[in-house]
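Hey L., structure's done. Input below.
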Amino acid sequence: MKNMMLKTAGALLVAALAGQTYAADLSKSTNIRGDLEKNCQGSFTKAKVLSSAEASKFCKCTIDSQAKMTNAEEWEIQSAVNAKKDPRTLPVVKRTEQYMNTCAGSNLIKKVQAAAASAAKK
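Output:
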């Protein structure tokens, strides 16, 4: 699903490189949401994509938007990609883009998109 998310700008906002966020073992976590944010922040700062403050803000917004997404909406995105359709037309992606723009701000989003696009080319 990570590669699928990187293929479209709208879906990128949903994922926001979050594939790395879930890389940690959360099976013993007593604060999964907090640990997801911490892992996300670490990924962005370690990769030198965002400063600590930027990563904190962006990751909080990302985890919040993911928490609001239902399984059915995730399946809808995956189904669209599998059918070679643009998931940016889906209401869930539009809603997530709007939320991320409001929460994180367009400058921060553009910074993450540029880093993701650069990484995808490598």
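The mean pLDDT is 81. The helical segments are 2-6, 9-15, 18-21, 32-46, 52-67, 71-82, 91-103, 106-121.

-- N.
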